[in-house]
Amino acid sequence: MSEQLTWFKSSHSDAEGDNCVSVALTPTTTHIRDTKLAADSPELNVRAPAWSAFISAVQPGA
User: Fold this and answer.
1) 33 and 20 in contact (C-beta within 8 Å)?
2) Residue boundaries of the structural domains of the chain
3) Among 17, 33, 39, 41, which residue's Cβ finds the most Cβ atoms within 10 Å?
4) Greatest distance between any 2 Cα atoms in the chain
5) Is the pLDDT at 1 greater than 50, yes or no?
6) Radius of gyration from C-alpha coordinates of the chain
7) CA atoms of 34 and 6, how far apart (whole Å)
8) Residue 52 — φ and ψ, nearest 5°?
9) What are residue 37's phi and psi, to 5 degrees?
10) How many CB atoms lie within 10 A of CB 35?
11) Contact between residue 44 and residue 32 where contact means Cβ atoms under 8 Å apart
């Protein structure tokens, strides 16, 4: 991948550092990885429409 991604830790990640997920957003894709593995972690890349549908489905009250 040639673009530089800006990663941020999920607000729902474990405060102990055991269950952490980092996310990087681009206009077309959401990139997800394990925070504790950082650069060595495999990424899950989800297209924007699928990510939006997932977020809508897991919102409280959805």
Assistant:
1) no
2) 7-58
3) 33
4) 39
5) no
6) 12
7) 14
8) -60, -40
9) -95, -15
10) 19
11) yes
Containing 44, the helix (H) or strand (E) segment is: strand 44-47
The answer to whether the beta carbons of residues 40 and 48 sit under 8 Å apart is no
The candidate with the shortest Cα–Cα distance to 31, out of 13, 58, 12, 10, is 10
Classified as helix, coil or strand, 61 is coil
Q: Which two tokens stand for residue 36?
A: 């504790």
Strand partners, 30: 25, 46
| 20: confidence class by pLDDT, cuts 50, 70, 90 | confident
Residue 8, CA distances (Å) to 26, 60, 62 in order: 13, 22, 25
d(CA 55, CA 15): 21
Residue type, 18: D
